[in-house]
Write a structure and sequence with these properties.
- The chain has 14 helices and 18 strands.
- The protein is of the alpha/beta class.
- A six-stranded mixed beta sheet has the order 1-5-4-2-3-6, with helices on both faces. A five-stranded mixed beta sheet has the order 8-7-9-10-11, with helices on both faces.
- α1 packs across α2, α3 crosses α5 and α13 runs antiparallel to α14.
- It starts with 10 loop residues before the first strand and ends with a helix.
Length: 443
């Protein structure tokens, strides 16, 4: 029976433990190479990575695996995940490979793949790779082995792409911006983009040493950014995560804006420019205030499962352009094929510049609902869905909340927990309702 290696965002785990081992990575490169060659004559692959010390080990093993299958490889060195997606498309390559565990700490690492169009690949492709991993290796002869070379100016090409998504009629001159790259993949590209668009840049979290990625800096630890904005009296702060596909933004007052608020700003800016926005996509966890604010402007709002991959699938199915998660994964599909923290930050700063308003003013229509999350630990073998009176209590809570709140009960994907989330305009009501539901689950 085939083992499932791929999760919702590629393959990820602790380095030195299966499957994040050099022998598996060699086999993975070989299997992926064979899948490519079954469809494409003389395919070429780009490999990029973040700043984890384990990236060297994994890069070498993957390179050897691809070469053994007769696949030529280009190596970009440290480059944001969306940079690999962009260059794969721009250079007409056949596959983009990212070595990163995103926002995870340095002992973890992983692999993500992008198609020739710079998009995440479907489940069917991943299943073909997993099936090929079960087959014996088919080494090509020496004359057919793949070659590898360093891709010069990869960062510069990506920086120019990011700048191209910002209006030619605008600049960031006069703004002081703190850029926090989480000691990750954007440690050079991030500050470069904002500097070249005219901003005075203060760089923090831009000194990677192989083991400090995401440690106390970046989008998952924004306190450092808030403090730096205050210390340097900056206008804005931009925090990226380890592979720079997610974003958190801070204004001069130290107020932190999450992905829900920033998605609303992007939609509102398009409307202000007279562009048609038929709808936007969030997730099951998107704050209800965003849905209310968008519906007030006759914008349809749809919720996907949690994960930027599912947001992207929903956008593609509907032919829409804008979507995102509260974590800061934002999608503007007329600018890029995947989530990009730098490009998303530029879209928000562009809205600020064009409107002449502060970011706080732009989100005035979105007063986030208080959100209460209660984790209920399950007993071994517990069938929580069959808890007595659960359905009845859910219905009663939803009637009580009416149009001023919502509830969500979902299992954790990694722990024996059920997560109970309730949103309401009134924080006390949200807390009381969440506890009622949690008590039912606890039995």
């Amino acid at each position: 029976m085939s083992r499932t290696y791929f999760g919702t965002d590629g393959i990820r785990g602790t380095v030195g433990q299966a499957p994040i081992t050099p022998d598996f990575m060699l086999r993975l490169g070989h299997a992926v190479g064979r899948v490519l060659k079954a469809d494409i004559d003389k395919p070429s692959v780009l490999i990029g990575k973040d700043t984890r010390i384990s990236g060297y080990l994994i890069e070498s093993a993957l390179e050897a695996g691809f070469a053994s299958a007769g696949i030529d490889v280009l190596l970009s060195g440290p480059l944001p995940t969306p940079g690999v997606a962009y260059l794969t498309r721009a250079l007409r390559l056949d596959l983009g490979v990212v070595i990163s565990a995103s926002h995870n700490p340095y002992p973890d690492n992983g692999i993500k793949f992008f198609s020739a169009r710079g998009e995440k690949l479907p489940d069917e492709w991943e299943q073909r790779v997993e099936a090929t991993l079960l087959e014996p290796a088919q080494w090509v002869d020496s004359a057919q082995l793949g070659k590898a070379r360093r891709l010069e100016a990869a960062r510069g090409r990506y920086v120019e792409f990011c700048k191209s998504t910002f209006s030619n009629d605008l600049s960031l001159k006069g703004l002081k911006i703190v850029v926090d790259a989480a000691h990750g993949a954007a440690y050079q590209a991030g500050p470069d983009v904002f500097h070249e668009l005219g901003a005075e840049v203060v760089a923090i979290g831009c000194n990677p040493d192989g083991v400090n990625i995401n440690a106390g800096f970046g989008a998952t630890a924004p306190a450092a950014l808030v403090q730096a904005v205050r210390d340097h009296k900056a206008d804005y702060g931009v925090a990226l995560d380890g592979d720079a596909d997610r974003l958190q933004l801070v204004d001069a007052d130290g107020r932190l804006y999450n992905g829900d608020e920033l998605l609303y700003v992007m939609v509102a800016d398009r409307l202000a420019q007279g562009q048609r926005v038929p709808g936007a996509v969030g997730t099951l966890m998107t704050n209800m205030a965003v849905e209310v604010a968008l519906k007030a402007q006759d914008i349809e709002f749809v919720r996907a499962k949690v994960g930027d991959r599912y947001v992207l699938e929903e956008l593609a199915a509907r032919g829409w352009l804008l979507g995102g998660e509260g974590s800061g994964h934002l999608l503007a599909l007329d600018k890029h094929t995947t989530g990009d923290g730098i490009v998303s930050a530029l879209q928000v700063l562009q809205a600020v510049s064009r409107s002449g308003k502060s970011l706080a003013q732009l989100v005035e229509a979105v007063t986030l609902f208080p959100q209460v999350l209660v984790n209920v630990r399950l007993k071994p073998g517990q069938d929580w869905k069959s808890a007595p009176k659960l359905a009845e209590t859910q219905a009663a809570v939803q009637r009580e909340l009416g149009g001023n709140g919502r509830l969500l009960i979902r299992p954790s994907g990694t722990e024996p927990l059920v997560r109970v989330m309730v949103e309401a305009r009134d924080a006390a009501q949200a807390k009381a309702c969440a506890e009622r539901l949690a008590d039912i689950l606890r039995g």
